[in-house]
Amino acid sequence: MLEGVRLVDHHCHGVVRGPLDRAAFELLATESDRPAPPGCTTLDSQLGFAIRRWCAPLLGLAPHAPAEDYLARRDQLGPAEVNRRLLGAAGVATFLVDTGFRAGDLLTPAELGAAAGASAAEVVRLEAVAERVAEGGVSADGFAAAYADALATATTDAVAVKSVLAYRHGLDIAPEPPTASQVRTAAGRWLRRAEAALPPGPRDGSPGDGSPGDGSPGARGLRLDDPVLLRHVLWAGVQRGLPVQIHTGFGDPDLDLARADPALLTGFLRAVADRDVAIMLLHCYPFHRQAGYLAQVFPHVYLDVGLALNHVGARAPAVLAESLELAPFHQVLYSSDAFGLPELHLLGAALFREALAEVLDGWVAAGRWSGADARRVADMVGAGNAARVYRLGD
Amino acid sequence: MLEGVRLVDHHCHGVVRGPLDRAAFELLATESDRPAPPGCTTLDSQLGFAIRRWCAPLLGLAPHAPAEDYLARRDQLGPAEVNRRLLGAAGVATFLVDTGFRAGDLLTPAELGAAAGASAAEVVRLEAVAERVAEGGVSADGFAAAYADALATATTDAVAVKSVLAYRHGLDIAPEPPTASQVRTAAGRWLRRAEAALPPGPRDGSPGDGSPGDGSPGARGLRLDDPVLLRHVLWAGVQRGLPVQIHTGFGDPDLDLARADPALLTGFLRAVADRDVAIMLLHCYPFHRQAGYLAQVFPHVYLDVGLALNHVGARAPAVLAESLELAPFHQVLYSSDAFGLPELHLLGAALFREALAEVLDGWVAAGRWSGADARRVADMVGAGNAARVYRLGD
Amino acid sequence: MLEGVRLVDHHCHGVVRGPLDRAAFELLATESDRPAPPGCTTLDSQLGFAIRRWCAPLLGLAPHAPAEDYLARRDQLGPAEVNRRLLGAAGVATFLVDTGFRAGDLLTPAELGAAAGASAAEVVRLEAVAERVAEGGVSADGFAAAYADALATATTDAVAVKSVLAYRHGLDIAPEPPTASQVRTAAGRWLRRAEAALPPGPRDGSPGDGSPGDGSPGARGLRLDDPVLLRHVLWAGVQRGLPVQIHTGFGDPDLDLARADPALLTGFLRAVADRDVAIMLLHCYPFHRQAGYLAQVFPHVYLDVGLALNHVGARAPAVLAESLELAPFHQVLYSSDAFGLPELHLLGAALFREALAEVLDGWVAAGRWSGADARRVADMVGAGNAARVYRLGD
Questions:
Q1: What is the nearest CA distance from B233 to chain C, expressed in angstroms?
Q2: C123: which strand partners?
Q3: Are C330 and A37 within 8 A, CB to CB?
Q4: Chain B contact for A286, CB < 8 A?
Q5: Which residue from B296, B369, B380 is facing C314, i.e. has the nearest CB?
Q6: Cα separation, B170 vs B225, whole angstroms
């Protein structure tokens, strides 16, 4: 199952260029923005154990080598070699890379692809484009047109756009686009507030200070969190015509999990049903069953359980199996949502392959599925669906 | 386990009388009202794979025969023979049939029973009775009395009533019944709106144009969606004294899944706790654990995971096991929620039997349950609880 | 796994002193406050089956002995001997005992410890302290100071405080503490309402009349259910500096399950993140995945799936495994939430040990975890984390 298949990772980020000390490594191995309690380590987690199991052998250590040994060996090899080994072993044919968060610290999509022996394409974050427009200077009246222009330019070569509405407001939004006048008023309010705040600092933080989910410039700059503008840029993304990725489910502590249930998007999904645009529900946990329902009733809705598989480690088969209940198999995709650590790219792929094989083999062994169907579905979920939706062969 | 037991299907619908082309068959095999994306098929789903596994052999094909072969063989045999084979193999003693949706296209309860060699009784949909009252002509002042009369007449031989509140509004309702004056005002508003709409067309659509969940006449007629009237007919159902079935959890795209969580009914369940009426939470997925809690704390509350077992196919044991966590075993029932396709009647029963046997055998093998308890619970859930609650032997 | 480990039960209650008739026993074996439907028994449940499996042998009967035989044998041995056998077999080193509900019917912490050969410490219920302050007579102006004094006194020897906000209002609260003036107004309103009610009767009911979750004096006295005061006592608990236990997830029928999702506490958890106080999310089911997310992103947040393991019985491994997905392993604890029946203390421990062993052994066997990690995590979750957070060795 999936043995000869090179995956399409339909949502990930770059990896850090330079060396990482233990504290920085630990913060990239959790969705938290705080260290573990005193005397504890974020690596005492499913993700930490999975790193030691899968990645240690790729660095020449025994599986489950102690974290100390692993980090020492990592330092010894250096970032370029570690990146090369782990990225290469992921067996990914194409990375679709969200460049909207801390891009300066990370390998570019082209560099990521080169390190992995893979191709790469860009996913453009809708909110980051708005923040760049505001930083460049724009009036409230001119915001909508300037945003449309900037989005067109930014997405010339992109394969998708992405929304972080879940982090900035919650998915409980009015389903229809705001009116031009509402956008103007909201832009005025937001731009005035931004001017009154501190001048923006450098756009990217140091490697250890955050996690990839949100990617806002935070207190240092213009963070797009106005609900009217968030809806506006989401609808601008729909009008652009590329697949629209929407973060749903868990992530870093900026979000309110109860407001990240993709079922809250039902009205929006109905509103865009006839626009021939694919909506990609990213990650979804612990609401992946809700996402599966949405995929069944709306043929333009897709889902993955990336991010979750990495963080649940040994439980990946259980979570993946839950994502294969209501969703039609042509609407489920693979992603890693890896950020910063090449370990997360490797693990995403390794856990996905192992989990999918375990789940499908079980169904075949019990006579519930045919082997041919299982292989066909594995290919679809691992690569084929993404190639079709993102037109990767075109 | 359950080998000699003939089931009671406490909530299902009739099956289509005539032949079905592939498009119509596909739409009856999903909760969506839209076809799969271009180049894809709704049969690439757990339900599609389960049909090919379980039903193909009953039509004389190998398990997992290709969908094309299956549909060709189905056509060759003709609807009457297909219905006879699949319904008969379900091993159901009694069907409780919701007749409130597209009844004209479907076998009647008596015909369904005859085709299956089983008995059948009727479940009356509360909203459909209101729509018939309105279509017959009624004033706002006369609505409540006319509804009570019509419900009494419609349920003379019925074993239960059913609410589709989840589809028409959501389960987040005020728990108490509306006052007479509120009902009058709401009826006036609804009847005026209905008169202003187009004259109703034929009450039933063509076989392929919908799914069973909602059963509204839609844009063509009087759709009861006023929240006050929905509460009124629900309480009228309570006053009627029969078990009240309430759709909860996933269904067709008319509903908002986040508003279909049965836990939203808590206030209502408290309000009817002393009225000696059983409330049957239908289907519940993915909120079946919430439903299990409600069943534990409220002895008048029952649940099933029908519909879900069909749609999750190979995952039926996992979902069924989750429904057997908090719920007392005398409050869990079997249903298929089959609509249109006899395949869904067969699958409901086959997946339920297989899943229950797998789950209970596992607990017995691990020493967690005794074999005698397992057999007793299987009989209760498969038939005994329904016979008791619906007084089927009386 | 865990074989030589004596557990810390970080949240439980005392057990009943005297004999119990069947009706009283049945009501202590369910979260309901009503008997099972006629002809049915609350012991036809996962909990009932687990009692017969695990406890019958400790009373000298075969596993799965009929409920009648079990209850007869229980009567024959008498409460003291049954308590001694079942509590002793739990293998608990330390009980942290919530004394805020029906304490007069139950063994005190010291008596509980003595019967089990264990140590015991007290958990003080924040709302019960407020109700005692009000019963003792206090003005609206004096309430806040009197409460602070009473809490300091009540917690002199306590290891934790506990909130039943989920039962009295729901977890959907404003995150910040109320102002002094808001507290004064709310106290005046609550105290006037309480005076207008009937004079309080005896504080504790008869053994069979309730379940432990709420512990309110109910209609007979002062029930703290004012949302402002509930927030006030919660923040007073935070200021006290001990770990703050918060009931979340299912419980008795006083609560609204949809408002008991710990994710609703996100704002509050953010607001207390820098106060060096541990927040213990109790029980959590069916929202234990949400709780796991909160534990990952907030290092001051802990969780258990006590109460749930008892009630899901044979499903304990599945539920426990779900609680070990996102949560760091140093933030997961053991509790039984046992109340009234020593069976619940025994079962909590037995099901936890068996479930954890099954889950971790499976991961080790599959090569996902090392054996050494599994043993280390078992010790942490079973005892070490609680010892650290509650400073039990100090």
A1: 24
A2: C98, C160
A3: yes
A4: no
A5: B369
A6: 10
* Other chains touching B, judged by 3 or more CB pairs under 8 Å: A, C
Between chains, do A253 and C298 touch, taking CB under 8 Å as contact?
yes
Q: What gap in Å lies between CA A10 and CA A304, rounded to an integer?
A: 9
The per-residue pLDDT for range A134-192, each reduced to its tens digit, is: 999 999 999 999 999 999 999 999 999 999 999 999 999 999 999 999 999 999 999 99
- Rounded to an integer, the average pLDDT of A216-225 is 64
pTM: predicted TM-score of the whole model, two decimal places: 0.95
SS3 breakdown of chain B: % helix, strand, coil, rounded to 5? 50, 10, 40
Ramachandran angles phi, psi of C202, nearest 5° = -60, 145
Q: Tell which residue, A287, A260, A371, A278, has the closest CA to residue A333.
A: A278
Q: Residue C56: helix, strand or coil by DSSP?
A: helix
CB contact under 8 A, A299 and B34: yes
Judge contact between C315 and C305, C-beta under 8 A: no
Domain coordinates in residue numbering, chain B: 10-18+87-389
Q: How far apart are CA A157 and CA A109, in angstroms?
A: 12
Q: Strand, coil or helix: what is C246?
A: strand
How high is the pLDDT of residue B168?
97
Q: Which residues pair with B332 in a beta bridge?
A: B303
| φ, ψ for residue C114, nearest 5 deg | -60, -45
For residue C299, which of A51, A38, A256 has the smallest C-alpha distance? A38
Percent of chain C past pLDDT 90, that is, above it, reads 89
**C331 to chain A: closest CA residue:** A37
Nearest-CB residue to B321 (from C50, C63, C318): C318
A 341-380 residues inside an 8 A Cβ radius of B: 363, 366-370, 372-373, 377, 380
What count of CB pairs under 8 Å joins A to C? 92
Scored b (16 or more CB within 10 A) or e, B310-334 reads: bbbbbbbbbbbbbbbbbbbbbbbbb
3-state DSSP assignment of residue B245:
strand
Among candidates A118, A114, A153, which has minimal Cα distance to A132? Answer: A153
Percentage of the residues of chain A whose pLDDT score is greater than 70: 93
CB contact under 8 A, B30 and A296: yes
Residues 6+ apart with CB under 8 A from B154: B124, B129
Helix ranges (H only) for A139-241 are 143-154, 165-168, 180-196, 227-240
Q: A50 — contact with chain C (CB < 8 Å)?
A: yes
Separation between Cα atoms, residue A322 and residue B288, nearest integer Å: 14
Helix (H, G, I), strand (E, B), or coil: what is residue A148?
helix
Nearest CB among C297, C324, C377 relative to A253 is that of C297
**Do A369 and B32 count as a contact with CB atoms less than 8 A apart?**
no
pLDDT in the model for residue C394:
65
pLDDT tens digits, residue range A287-339? 999 999 999 999 999 999 999 999 999 999 999 999 999 999 999 999 999 99
Question: Could you give the 3-state DSSP secondary structure of residue C11?
Answer: strand
Interface predicted TM-score (ipTM) over 0.85: yes
**How far is Cα C67 from Cα C45, in angstroms, rounded to an integer?**
12
Q: Could you give the CA distance from residue A119 to residue A121 in angstroms, rounded to a whole number?
A: 7
The arrangement of secondary structure in A10-18+87-389, i.e. its CATH architecture, is Alpha-Beta Barrel (3.20)
Residue whose pair of structure tokens reads 């002062």 in the numeric block: C222
d(CA A73, CA A42) in angstroms, rounded, equals: 19
Using an 8 Å CB-CB cutoff, list chain A residues near B45.
Answer: 296, 327-329
Using omega within 30 degrees of 0 as the cis cutoff, is the peptide bond preceding C66 cis? no
Residue A262 Cα, gap to closest chain C Cα (Å): 15
| Contacts with C305 from chain B: Cβ below 8 Å | none
Closest CA to A309 of A338, A339, A279: A338
pLDDT tens, position by position, A226-240: 999 999 999 999 999
Answer whether residue C210 shows pLDDT above 50: no
Distance from CA of A52 to the nearest CA of C (A): 9
